[in-house]
Amino acid sequence: MNPLTNMRNVLKLSEQELKNPSGKSWHDMYRDSAWIFIAGFPYTLSEGDIICVFSQYGEVVNINLVRDSKTGKSKGFCFLCYEDQRSTVLAVDNLNGIKIIDRTLRVDHVADYKPPKDNEKLDEETLRLYMEGCAPKPVIKPNPAAREPQSDLKLSDVIKQEKQKRKKSSKEKKHKKRRKSSE
């Protein structure tokens, strides 16, 4: 279906729901997911720009701006996760069909979405941002009573530790499956 037709259909559903209020909403079928799909925005928008627009309806906890793997440029769509599922209903109802820089946004629910876990493909800077976040670091004043030595871990050491943890947990899962199947 054409994305604009789909957007108009979602708007019609919302209008019908307002005219004929009943106990059930079409949003209820997505009550287990806090993810939304956003498409049609300008390629120049960054994650921060999208979060600024969508954070007016709730706390954004994750965003996956889909980019071209070779150039790194945005493909014009993303997946966004709110802290509370009710925020998705507000975002879909209020932001679907709006124009940003002469482009019409399409905003819709996502039933089953799992964020990508391609940490091996990420460059070191992006992986560091995923691990540490991009917020400013809090200034921690040293406590004279505490005499613990400071850890001088490098980012590469942290990455290795994370990979080892994942391997260990996947081995444990496989071991549990084998035990269950043998019983």
Automatic annotation (TrEMBL):
<dbReference type="Pfam" id="PF00076">
    <property type="entry name" value="RRM_1"/>
</dbReference>
<feature type="compositionally biased region" description="Basic residues">
    <location>
        <begin position="163"/>
        <end position="183"/>
    </location>
</feature>
<dbReference type="InterPro" id="IPR012677">
    <property type="entry name" value="Nucleotide-bd_a/b_plait_sf"/>
</dbReference>
<feature type="domain" description="RRM">
    <location>
        <begin position="34"/>
        <end position="112"/>
    </location>
</feature>
<dbReference type="InterPro" id="IPR051847">
    <property type="entry name" value="RNA_proc/Spliceosome_comp"/>
</dbReference>
<dbReference type="InterPro" id="IPR035979">
    <property type="entry name" value="RBD_domain_sf"/>
</dbReference>
<dbReference type="InterPro" id="IPR045844">
    <property type="entry name" value="RRM_Ist3-like"/>
</dbReference>
<feature type="region of interest" description="Disordered">
    <location>
        <begin position="135"/>
        <end position="183"/>
    </location>
</feature>
<protein>
    <submittedName>
        <fullName>RNA-binding motif protein, X-linked 2</fullName>
    </submittedName>
</protein>
<feature type="compositionally biased region" description="Basic and acidic residues">
    <location>
        <begin position="149"/>
        <end position="162"/>
    </location>
</feature>
<dbReference type="InterPro" id="IPR000504">
    <property type="entry name" value="RRM_dom"/>
</dbReference>
<keyword id="KW-0694">RNA-binding</keyword>
